[in-house]
């Protein structure tokens, strides 16, 4: 793949969701852990990674909070407006990148991501010249429910080759933009960048990450993220 500078990675942070599963008054990225919003914790992780030189934050057109945060003035941060789905928001962020750049997409809702995992993702993808994502091997027994009775087990899946996709996910910007656009044009539901690449026939690399890289999705995840972030700041 493409001759690009690996010390100039651009991150795209989709932060235009409403956090419906979180049931909170404000979109979940603006809930606070200690004195900072979840989004600020996430952005600080990316802004302090030495290979990430620019961060594009994708916010909702209705967002009246982001620009009140001091981090909005950070010189590495650019802001753009997102769309209805996460895929639309990522696509909006990608419009600000050149085709030959690397796009490192990371959920606003994953503030606990580890710097060493980001570095391993970047190194592996660049060395193998193949896009990839952080992910974890599944550790629970996986049950497949009936489609027409989805609280009853049909059978148990073999979990040997099953992984849970996390973020960041790192791809060539031009390739990702094209695949996302094609998938959306064909009405395919895309929940992560790797799925768009797979839609175009690609096979992203799976790079195992720490299990504490959780996505804050439901109310009980907040306490867990608070615990992990506190532990990380004590270990620094
Ligand atoms: N239209 C959307 C939807 C989601 N996201 C972002 O994508 C990330 C992962 O999505 P998810 O955790 O599902 O967030 P929400 O869509 O906000 O949550 P929910 O599905 O519970 O409403 C979040 O950082 C979210 O802000 C986005 O940028 N644009
Ligand atoms: C990108 C992602 O975080 C990988 O697990 C996930 O697919 C986002 O899905 P969501 O339904 O938008 O939370």
UniProtKB/TrEMBL annotation:
Gene3D superfamilies: Spore Coat Polysaccharide Biosynthesis Protein SpsA, Chain A (3.90.550.10)
Single GO molecular function: 2-C-methyl-D-erythritol 4-phosphate cytidylyltransferase activity
Gene Ontology terms: biological process: isopentenyl diphosphate biosynthetic process, methylerythritol 4-phosphate pathway
NCBIfam families noted in UniProt: ispD (TIGR00453)
Catalytic reaction annotation: 2-C-methyl-D-erythritol 4-phosphate + CTP + H(+) = 4-CDP-2-C-methyl-D-erythritol + diphosphate
InterPro entries: IspD, IspD/TarI, IspD/TarI_cytidylyltransf_bact, Nucleotide-diphossugar_trans
Site entry: Positions MEP for the nucleophilic attack: 159, 215
Family indicated by similarity: Belongs to the IspD/TarI cytidylyltransferase family. IspD subfamily.
Pathway participation: Isoprenoid biosynthesis; isopentenyl diphosphate biosynthesis via DXP pathway; isopentenyl diphosphate from 1-deoxy-D-xylulose 5-phosphate: step 2/6
EC number assigned by the record: 2.7.7.60
Any Pfam family matching the protein: IspD
Known role: Catalyzes the formation of 4-diphosphocytidyl-2-C-methyl-D-erythritol from CTP and 2-C-methyl-D-erythritol 4-phosphate (MEP).
Transmembrane feature ranges: none
Protein name: 2-C-methyl-D-erythritol 4-phosphate cytidylyltransferase
Site entry: Transition state stabilizer: 21, 28
Keywords tagged on the record: Isoprene biosynthesis, Nucleotidyltransferase, Transferase
């Amino acid at each position: 793949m493409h001759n690009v500078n690996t010390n100039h990675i651009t991150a795209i942070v989709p932060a235009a969701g409403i956090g419906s599963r979180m049931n909170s008054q404000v979109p979940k990225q603006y809930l606070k852990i200690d004195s900072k919003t979840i989004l600020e914790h996430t952005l600080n992780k990316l802004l302090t990674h030495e290979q990430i030189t620019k961060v594009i934050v994708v916010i909702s057109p209705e967002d009246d909070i982001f620009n009140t945060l001091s981090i909005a003035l950070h010189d590495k941060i650019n802001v753009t407006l997102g769309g209805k789905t996460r895929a639309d928001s990522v696509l909006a962020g990608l419009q600000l990148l050149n085709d030959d750049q690397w796009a490192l997409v990371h959920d606003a809702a994953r503030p606990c991501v580890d710097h060493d995992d980001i570095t391993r993702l970047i190194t592996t993808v660049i060395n193998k010249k193949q896009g990839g994502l952080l992910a974890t091997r599944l550790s629970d027994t996986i049950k497949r429910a009936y489609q027409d009775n989805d609280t009853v087990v049909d059978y148990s899946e073999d979990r040997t080759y099953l992984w849970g996709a996390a973020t960041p996910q790192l791809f060539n910007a031009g390739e990702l933009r094209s695949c996302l656009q094609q998938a959306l044009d064909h009405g395919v539901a895309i929940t992560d960048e790797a799925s768009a690449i797979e839609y175009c026939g690609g096979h992203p690399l799976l790079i195992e990450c720490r299990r504490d890289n959780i996505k804050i999705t439901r109310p009980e995840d907040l306490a867990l993220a608070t615990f992990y972030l506190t532990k990380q700041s004590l270990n620094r």
